Every structure is written in structure tokens, then in C-alpha cells.
Amino acid sequence: MKAVIPAAGLGTRFLPATKAQPKEMLPVFDKPTIQYVVEEAVASGIDDILIITGKGKRSIEDHFDRSFELEYFLRKNNKKEYLDEVEAISDLADIYFVRQKEQKGLGDAIYCARKHIDGEEAFAVLLGDTITSSDVPCTRQLMDIYERYGASAIAVEEVPRDKVERYGIIDGREVSEGIYSIDDMVEKPPISEAPSNLAIMGRYVLESEIFDHIENVPPGFGGEIQLTDAMRELKTVYGCVFRGKTYDIGNRVDWLKTSLEFAMRDDEIRPELVDYMRGLISRY
Ligand code: G1P
């Protein structure tokens, strides 16, 4: 199976940090966001990844390319640990790039993958606003559902009711533990119109016929071509409650919290960070 990672958004929520660099390259602790997402696809058994980029996203390509000068420098200076890490990034998978030429929404961005996916029955989509952590990678969990049921599968997660308007929300019946047969879905509904609090969390395995539906769907929420609207046209879609932890990094506070949490896992950094945070708390 191939994977598609849309990375064409302008990152307005992170301005001015994203004025001249892609939001996908903002680090979460010590790695660019998009590297976590690529690593999830690879850990799920995918080795062919198409990244949908746009203007000003060149550094994403550079990040996954070889960097001969850097490797030469690290080798010459005996920095083996860094050298291994840098080389590993360019060996992760076969990564392809295509540009979305206009900001017309997530559905339109995914549509840019059509030719690359041609001939495949289904493909995975991973959005960069969420990082996941679990024993079985989130995308692998969806691939398993796709293999078992022969239909599209998307990851969902319960969110507090006051946050439903930030997400695509599903309506469905639980057919086995944690698996919903989806009857309907709506992109970013007001609380009063949300059919549930089960949110689409940015991981999908979609049958290729989705491209026909994207082509025919009219602009939806925000005047954009929405993937959620196109998915409503698929005959069967399963919602799979993700077994694992998700980290929302689509806004500044959650992004910062995730960086802190990942830094706390580092034995060398933790003691100093804890002291520093205690100091901050007593000061503010
Ligand atoms: C997109 C999808 C939405 C989904 C969300 C998850 O919205 O359109 O259905 O719930 O990702 O992060 P975005 O956050 O790109 O506006």
C-alpha cells in the first residue's frame, strides 16, 4: 500500500514562525513534525510515500534527501551518532513529491495524488497535525481493518463536546468493539449539529474510488473541497477508535505540550527541565 501525506497548508496558526518555513518542519522536541508522520507510515509497512507540497516547502524535500556535505563533515569529525541519524532519514522510504498549485482544501490536496495511486485498490492518508503513539501503529491498525472488511477505514477518537467544531465528526453504529459502521459524517459542525463526539483524527485508508467523489463534490466548509464530504459518497466506511495516544500539534498550546512531553521522556533532559518548570510555576 502507498501513503499520501498532505503538507501544502500555509500554517497560518503558527505565524510568524511559518512565514518562511513550512509548518511541517517545525520541530516537536527534536524532530520535524513530518518525520514522525513518515516514520509512522514506515512502521506500518509502507515504503512508498507521496508528499503533497506547495510553494515554499522545499526544505521538506531537502530533509528526506541525502546531504553529502553534512555527512562528509560528520564523518570527518567522528560524529558517528549524528551521521547514522542523518543517513537513516534519507533511507526511510521512497518519497515522492507533487505540488498542490492552489489552496483549495484537503480534498483537493489528496486529489493531487490520483496519478501516483493509479492502479492501487486503496491507499493510506496521514495528516501532519497529529502524531500518534501506540504498539501497533495507527495506520497499520486501519490497514488491518481494510484487509478484514474490504472497505475504507478511518481513525476516530472521542473529543470533548466543546471541541467538535474543530474536526470532522462521524455518525455511526458500533459493529464490534471500537469499530463503527459510519452512516454519515460532517466537517466541523457547530456543537448543536454534531451527530456525536467521535472525531476524524487524521488517519485514513481509502479506496481509490474516493478520487471520483472528490472530483464531483462541491466546495463545502470554508468554501473548500473537503475530504470528509467526498468520503460521505463512499458506500462503506469504518470508523476505528484508535488504540493508542494521539498528540494534536495543530495549534500552539498543544504543539508546545507535546514537545514538553517528548522532552520529559529523555532521561538526560528531564531533571533540568523539571527544575526549570518548577521555577517558572513559582514565578508566574
Ligand atoms: C482535517 C479534516 C478533519 C479532521 C482533522 C483532523 O481538518 O478536514 O475532518 O477531523 O483534519 O486533524 P484540518 O485540521 O486540516 O482543518
TrEMBL record:
The first-level EC class reads transferase
Supply the Pfam families for this chain: NTP_transferase
What does the record give as EC number?
2.7.7.9
What SUPFAM superfamilies would the database entry show?
A: Nucleotide-diphospho-sugar transferases (SSF53448)
Q: Which domain of life is it from?
A: Archaea
Which keywords, in A-to-Z order, does the entry hold? Answer: Nucleotidyltransferase, Transferase
According to the UniProt entry, its GO molecular function terms are: UTP:glucose-1-phosphate uridylyltransferase activity
Annotated ranges, domain Nucleotidyl transferase: 2-259
Q: Which reaction does it catalyse?
A: alpha-D-glucose 1-phosphate + UTP + H(+) = UDP-alpha-D-glucose + diphosphate
UniProt-listed InterPro entries: GalU_uridylyltTrfase_bac/arc, NTP_transferase_dom, Nucleotide-diphossugar_trans
Q: What is this protein called?
A: UTP--glucose-1-phosphate uridylyltransferase
Q: Which organism is it from?
A: Methanothermobacter marburgensis (strain ATCC BAA-927 / DSM 2133 / JCM 14651 / NBRC 100331 / OCM 82 / Marburg) (Methanobacterium thermoautotrophicum)
Q: What is the lineage of its organism?
A: Archaea, Methanobacteriati, Methanobacteriota, Methanomada group, Methanobacteria
Q: Which gene carries the instructions for this protein?
A: galU
